[in-house]
């Protein structure tokens, strides 16, 4: 009967998809391809009313298989993608974008640009309006490739210098790419979202032609507009731009303060700490100590010699002046229960000594002042340093012994 046929078809379809899923999970691409072929051949009904219709299923699974299959070629992939574009207008632009990504991954820049141009000229009734966001992405990526061409021409011009008519032709071509890239890149970054690569390229174009005010406005909008999602990179780009422009330390500190609030473990916290330490304001120097302590709370910073050098220098300065020991005490109180095992174990002392003696020196200084002269880390490193007859380690031991009372004050 008709109902029985539909039921059997549904069961066979679900079983086939289950086999495909199993093959994909086990990275058995040949087996997955065979089952997908069976799945395509067995489709007899239109299931487009379902949330994910067969055409989208075939597109997504087929793309994954062809990308990983050892015997697939770019020619087969291109053929498959062209077929997928005709299966459903609702997904036409998405398929085009994915096709472009694969072409770019294979270094086929010209083919990718051609596909973007064709997709941009696509029109299909109301679908054109519905897929407005996808169309803007198509245009944005075309702008990105125009920027790539502009960058190539710029490098040619910079390498050859001013050399008559040949350079004039290159410069004119370069300006043509600039105009096309700028229009499309400017449009996409108006839409709230994460557009890092587009923003960087657009700012590069503006800076090259000396439009620094526009570049500043773009970066400020990207970093501070509440409609855009929180994005650490937006503040990184703004900071780097301000630094290139030779802006005041106040402006640089302001940009990094927000980055610190979002990502306290960012690599730029070294720069932030350095600027704060050079400030004449006590409040900023206090913040600098907090910044470097917080950065070292993260595992990725455990063996960062520069960070330990910053902390050691600041702690040493405070200890010698005997001012603001309360700053150290406040930071240490929340860490004294876990930093000894996290940073200052005997095992780490041995490893750090073997791998990086500068790192072990800075850490030993901090460990000795925070945990006293009986700290395992300090004892091991200072002993090894003195044993190797290294003068700086003898001075280290002498300094920590002299200021051992500081440990008692900090520990309470």
TrEMBL record:
GO terms for biological process: transcription by RNA polymerase I. It comes from the Eukaryota. GO terms for cellular component: RNA polymerase I transcription regulator complex. InterPro entries: SL1/TIF-IB_Component (IPR052669), TAF1A (IPR039495). PANTHER family: TATA BOX-BINDING PROTEIN ASSOCIATED FACTOR RNA POLYMERASE I SUBUNIT A (PTHR32122), TATA BOX-BINDING PROTEIN-ASSOCIATED FACTOR RNA POLYMERASE I SUBUNIT A (PTHR32122:SF1). This is TAF1A polymerase. It comes from Cinclus mexicanus (American dipper).
């Amino acid at each position: 009967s008709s109902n029985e046929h539909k039921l059997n078809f549904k069961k066979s379809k679900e079983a086939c998809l289950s086999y495909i899923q199993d093959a994909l999970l086990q990275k058995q691409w040949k087996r997955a391809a065979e089952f997908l072929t069976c799945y395509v051949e067995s489709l007899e009904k239109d299931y487009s009313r379902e949330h994910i219709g067969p055409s989208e299923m075939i597109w997504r699974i087929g793309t994954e298989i062809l990308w990983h299959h050892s015997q697939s070629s770019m020619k087969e992939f291109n053929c498959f993608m062209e077929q997928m574009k005709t299966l459903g207008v609702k997904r036409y632009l998405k398929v085009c974008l994915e096709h472009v990504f694969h072409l770019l991954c294979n270094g086929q820049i010209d083919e990718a640009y051609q596909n973007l141009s064709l997709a941009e000229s696509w029109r299909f009734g109301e679908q054109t309006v519905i897929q407005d966001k996808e169309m803007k992405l198509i245009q944005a990526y075309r702008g990105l490739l125009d920027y790539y061409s502009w960058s190539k021409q710029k490098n040619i011009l910079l390498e050859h210098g001013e050399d008559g008519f040949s350079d004039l032709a290159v410069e004119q071509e370069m300006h043509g790419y600039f105009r096309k890239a700028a229009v499309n890149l400017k449009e996409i970054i108006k839409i709230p979202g994460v557009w890092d690569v587009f923003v960087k390229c657009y700012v590069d174009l503006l800076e090259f032609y000396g439009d620094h005010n526009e570049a500043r406005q773009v970066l400020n909008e990207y970093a501070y507009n509440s409609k855009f999602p929180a994005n650490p990179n937006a503040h990184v780009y703004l900071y780097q731009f301000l630094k290139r422009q030779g802006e005041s330390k106040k402006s640089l500190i302001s940009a990094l303060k927000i980055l610190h609030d979002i990502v306290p473990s960012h690599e730029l916290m070294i720069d932030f700490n350095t600027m704060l330490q050079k400030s004449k304001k006590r409040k900023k120097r206090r913040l600098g100590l907090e910044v470097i302590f917080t950065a070292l709370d993260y595992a990725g910073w455990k063996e960062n010699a520069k960070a330990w050098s910053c902390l050691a220098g600041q702690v040493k300065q405070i200890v010698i002046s005997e001012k603001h020991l309360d700053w150290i005490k406040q930071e240490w109180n929340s860490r004294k229960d876990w930093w000894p095992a996290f940073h200052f174990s005997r095992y780490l002392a041995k490893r750090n000594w073997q791998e990086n003696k500068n790192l072990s020196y800075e850490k030993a200084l901090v460990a000795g002042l925070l945990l006293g002269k009986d700290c395992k880390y300090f004892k091991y490193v200072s002993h090894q340093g003195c044993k190797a007859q290294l003068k700086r380690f003898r001075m280290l031991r002498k300094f920590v012994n002299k200021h051992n009372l500081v440990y008692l004050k900090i520990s309470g």
